[in-house]
Design brief:
With 340 residues, the protein is of the alpha/beta class. The strands form 2 sheets. The chain has a 7-stranded parallel β-sheet with strand order 3-2-1-4-5-6-9, sandwiched between helices. The N and C termini lie far apart (46 Å). One of its GO terms (cellular component) is cytoplasm. It holds the Pfam family Epimerase.
Length: 340
């Protein structure tokens, strides 16, 4: 017997595609909300049972309202995920405006059982003083590494305010998501590994004292489904993973592939300078850069988090970074992106 219907916004994105596949595997009926211009290669084939496409945009309220009609849940993963874009106002148009529309749709339909909102660890702010932060942390809003971070903080406030007004919304905060799949900015780790193994990133991007929380995309997808089934409205859940440095990431990748480790560290001022050059080039060629100044700004902070609450309440069970790399590195090789 088919489970209830889930509307997935951002379904053509890196995480969104994984969410659609995972939901279908668990027996849900999936309505994928996509734009007419979206690349659908990461989605199930259109003829897949219990899978349907619905066209529109999260910034277009009527199309979103039509898509959500008859659905039991909304899984809102649509977002503009980039460290830098030439028109930063788009971050608020999509990341804030899109969430406002989802909340308003929920209010108008009246029968949506739950909104599961994909936020970001950036919305909580960096971990200060060597601590491992949790869901109780509130972003200090004194400074932001990027306009993306600023927009996710603003959206987080809107989600929490809606919850206080009785909207059945659960907020999830994934870490640095990685794994097989689309090579978008949402999968920055795979892109950095490609640069590393093709010798375009010859050194470490941190000295080993930086901390990021790495989340395998399949674990994050399972965490979203658990939030549909077990998440308490109004609660926040970190869907993070192992806290490690980029030095550890590159060293682990070298060991697993029996290749040499980087021999030097690239100073952050060099990364920032390269980022500014990349931005200038981007303005000319119209292609977004892999590295921009916000990349260096992010690396100057610690982003270590605990997912104990999600483990306890959702049954979230993230794999180690080594286990995740054992999946993603062969995929990169078999896909022809790297050689080792």
């Amino acid at each position: 017997m088919t489970k209830k219907t889930v509307l997935v916004t951002g379904s053509s994105g890196y995480l969104g595609g994984h969410l659609c596949h995972a939901l279908l595997k668990q027996g849900y009926s999936v309505r994928a909300f996509v734009r007419k211009t979206s690349c659908l290669t990461s989605l199930p084939p259109p003829q897949t049972p219990h899978f349907h496409l619905s066209y529109g945009d999260v910034t277009d309220f009527p199309s979103l309202l039509s898509a959500a009609s008859g659905c039991h849940f909304i899984l809102h993963s649509a977002a503009l995920v980039e460290p830098w874009i030439p028109h930063p106002s788009l971050f608020f148009t999509i990341n804030v405006g899109g969430l406002k529309n989802v909340i308003q749709v929920c209010k108008e339909i009246g029968s949506i059982e739950k909104i599961v909102y994909t936020s970001s660890f950036f919305a909580l702010g960096p971990a200060v003083g060597g601590i491992i932060a949790d869901e109780t942390q509130v972003h200090p809003e004194k400074s932001f590494c990027s306009e993306y971070e600023r927009s996710k903080v603003a959206a987080d406030k809107i989600a929490l305010q809606a919850a206080s007004e009785g909207v059945p919304i659960v907020a999830l905060y994934p870490g640095v998501i990685y794994g097989s799949g689309k090579l978008t900015s949402g999968n920055i780790i795979a892109r950095m590994l490609i640069e590393r193994f093709n010798w375009r990133l010859p050194g470490y991007t941190g000295q080993g004292n930086d901390k990021f929380s790495f989340s395998h995309v399949d674990d994050v997808a399972e965490g979203h489904i658990a939030a549909i089934e077990k998440g308490r409205p109004g609660e926040r859940y970190l869907l993070t993973g192992e806290n490690a440095s980029f030095k550890y990431l590159f060293d682990a990748a070298a060991v697993l592939t029996n290749t040499s480790k980087p021999r030097f560290v690239i100073p952050l001022w060099v990364i920032e300078a390269y980022g500014w050059i990349s931005v200038l080039v981007s303005r000319v060629i119209g292609k977004l850069p892999l590295i921009s100044p916000p990349t260096a700004y992010v690396m100057r902070h610690q982003w270590a988090y605990s997912c104990e609450k999600a483990k306890k309440e959702l049954g979230y069970n993230p794999r180690s970074l080594k286990e995740g790399l054992e999946e993603v590195l062969p995929w990169l090789r078999n896909s022809g992106f790297i050689k080792y």
